[in-house]
Structures
1.
Amino acid sequence: MERIRTKHHVIMILTAMFFALLLCGAASRPVKAETMKTETAHPDGILQNGDLLTEQEEISVDKRTQARSGADFEATVKAGLDNYQAANSENKVTIDVSACGVLGTEVEQKVTDFLNTHPSYFYVKNSFSYSYAGDNVYNLTFTLTDTPANVSKMLAAYDTEVNAIVKSMDTNWSALEKALYANDYLAVHCAYDSGLTKHSAYDAFVNKTAVCQGYALAFLELMDQANVNCELVTSQSLNHAWNLVNVNGSWYHVDTTWNDPLTDRLGRARHKYLLKSTNSFKSETGDPSHAADDYVYTGRQNDSTASDTSYDAYFWNSIDNPFGYSDGYWYGNNAGTITQYQGSASGLTESKEVKKLIEKWNVWNNDSGYWQSNYSGFSLYEDDIYYVLPTEVHRMSCDGTNDDVVYSLTEDERGVGYLYGFKISQYGDLTYGIAKSPNEETTNKDIDLCGHSYGNWITEAATCEGVGMRKQICAKCGKTQSEILPALGHSYQATSKIAATCTTAGCEIQTCGRCKDTKVTTIPATGHQRAKTSTAQPNFVKAGLQKTICADCGVTINQKALAKKQCKKGQTYTVGNYKYKIVSPKTNGTGTAAFAGVVKDQAKVTIGSKVNIQGASFKITQVSDKALKNKKKLTAAVVGTNISSIGKEAFSGAKKLKIITVKSKKLTKVGKNALKDIYKKAKIKVPSSKLKQYKKLFKSKGQKRTVKITK
Ligand SMILES: [Zn+2]
Ligand SMILES: [Zn+2]
Ligand SMILES: [Zn+2]
């Protein structure tokens, strides 16, 4: 039962880090052309998963031969699963079976067969995946039912139980004696799981409760360990599983589940379904429990395999107590007579009557009536025979001497009922049951026959993922009391980080300070969090654009065009400190505009020849009515070369206006009161060629007589 327990810690960490890097995109691998495919199989017919056997699919002889060549599949899978410590963080174990020549068409059946014939791999889930290329299977990937650390604990408990049972089997026993002992052990110490969820040998041995698959797998395990040939039998119509065992050269049916009475009777073990022929099993006479015509067998067995009828009507059919063994002889309680038997390859032969138990079990509260049978039960512990009477537990030597009372029911217990059965564990814990009648379930209590003497607690510390255990061992009998210490959980600390951007995920690698396990946490992309909008305004000649970008990464989030501005007559625009009014709304450079005033009063105003408004050039051909009216700061004004008309009251009230320089030679109109109340000694300077003409034009526009028109 020794298993390889290799430490693969460092490799696991390195692998985790490698994947972490891959995830982060910090490293990349070239993708290689790969013809390997992977498939997941969910095989039916694995007993520890609660299934029953299915008829094996027919595989052609050629392919079987091909599959049988190459390395040993069974040994390879075994070695791989024994090395379960190498499981990855998802508890998956991958086994290289490329040298075994297994075909994709048969791998499911081979795995099913493997698990059904190796009950100690109870820690493997039934679904598995395999990689194959062409016909050949390369890898098998199994998933453990728990973390490697916890599997290790389960295996330790499993091995302890199995080893203890196997050790208590005498190596000189015949196969029949070994089968008898295993049957009795399971019937006494395992109880049927009425919850119908416990299917494995682990459940039968460690949890001590299982359904038929668990009993059958546990029996198979014990027979394997004891070198007795054993197979499984199931029936879909009976929804049941049991065993076929080879004793003295012949095969027989053994059903340990049915040999364990339901409901569980304390210390009872039946033998009615031990070493039976197929005919006897299938016969409905008086017992239809196994009447079905759809038995499916593992190995090369079939209905005609178990044809020997030697034990169909054997004496033990009526004995429902376990047998015990001491110093070369078997002992049992045969209907109240404790009897010694000589064991052999072919059976048990009565050799001596040890003691007759004559006491009757009275009907409760009716001392004149009693129940028909003997309800003592039977057990043999450390070479002493134990039996019970209605109110006492007895122990005696195997020859019937030294009979004494180990325990007598207390007054309180005598008020509850009589003793109906008992059992003794391999650690000397005697459990007795009290009930008012044999048809009632017993109330059970324990007596410590060993006088356990426990040493100090031995602590196996819990790890991050694995439970720990503390145990104390009885120095006398080896009984172990254990307590599970819960797993500690990882203590992760961030070791490196790649920040997320707006559009790509980042990641954080955390390492456990205790076990160095690494964990990669993806940091989701942030999305564009900070939007920034910019606008290129439209004008008369160009459409505009409103654009929203991410302030962090610059990506354009959205944009929209803004239509060109319409140029219309009469619209007023400000350019710098000056205001203009559209006169001729052409935007091709031939449009015209009027100077319409200033935003803020200022000393000097120069009206140019052209102005650029909203991207288009306009000739300035007019000075609007009242354009500079009442501008108190105005001292000098220039009238540009394209002005043909100065509006009414254009400079009116500009009291400090001392000089108006007219550059235009196109002036044809000056409006009423255009110069009213400008500075009394102001000068209007005009082009010399126009002096005469403009003197007339500027005459009587509201100005004082002292205002001069000059060249
Ligand atoms: Zn002890
Ligand atoms: Zn850890
Ligand atoms: Zn962004």
2.
Amino acid sequence: MPLFPNYHRAPVTFIQANNATWVDEKNQSYSDLSSGIGVYNVGACHPQVESALVEQAHHLWHVPNLYQNPLQETVAQKLGGDTYTTYFANSGAEANEAAIKLARLATGKSTIISFTNSFHGRTYAAMAATGQDSIHAGMPMLTGFEYAKFNDINSVKSLLNDDVAAIMLELIQGEGGVIPAEQAFIDDLIALAHQQHILVIIDEVQTGMGRTGKKFAFEHFGFEPDIFTSAKGLANGIPVGAMLAKNELAPALAYGTHGSTFGGNPLAMAAASATLTVLDGVLNDIDDKIKHFWLKLDEFRQLPTVKEVRGLGMMAGITLNIPVNDVVSELLKAHIIVLSAGNNTLRLLPPLTISTEQLTDSLEKIKHYLLKK
Ligand SMILES: Cc1ncc(COP(=O)(O)O)c(C=O)c1O
């Protein structure tokens, strides 16, 4: 066995993908409502991203962070404007590691309050921030992490002390089952953090890059986080992560405190820059598709196998009362790619660029499948 057994891989090999259609080695087509776990937000192999990548590949693939990298500056400006300063990493977990380090360096405090049922990645600090016992199982954990109950401000208050550097959360818990934060909880949390001089870190790895209908989910909630992270859809399939912090925090990530060989690699930056340009256009035009998505999803609420439907924008969770993993496998056999998430939830993250016809057709097929169960 050449590979570790740490993944369950379905018995299908994909060889090609175009927007929301993937093709396997037998030349069979599949409809993708997963975006490759929230990555292909502007559709697989988007031609504009592909051109940028190919063009960059002709010139320069890698340059260490010992030299100027104007492409990083371009992407940083597109991502954070004049308000945020950016550090580039290679993944969501790495972006979160940088956020945790920065919060500790900037405040001189160590405790990070995160939430039960959260997911922040598999590297050590990101894993420690993740509030799920199953993710920690069998491994000693880092100290300095406390877990509050999601959507419960009193639970946060009960964990406060002089050593709290930051509160870290997803605005919609993705892996945890597509559980949205409540507006009132966020309002209270931001006020509390402000009052207590505690930083707020928003993990936008799954909710960002247009997934919820705005570039970042915090735009729905009416605040600007001190620190936020992005990855997954950032370069539409080329590995990259980013940690952004309000400009005034920037000096804390001083020379020598952090770094990465590949972070902000020219290929990733070319893809990210093109993705961000494409995304602006896609988001200008997304409202009708989102409305349609939720009209169709409303129909799922009536099904006997469905307990609850939740989400925001193009991010939906359908909690089932039949085993979700069987549903995911069966739908794959029917050539529809969907995901599971915590709490027996079917998770749908279609590319924002999926055609309304393909979206409708795929949702109808899922609905009929669930109806027959
Ligand atoms: C909210 C969130 N944060 C962090 C991560 C980790 O990202 P990566 O797998 O790129 O390390 C994920 C991955 O699913 C995620 O959903």
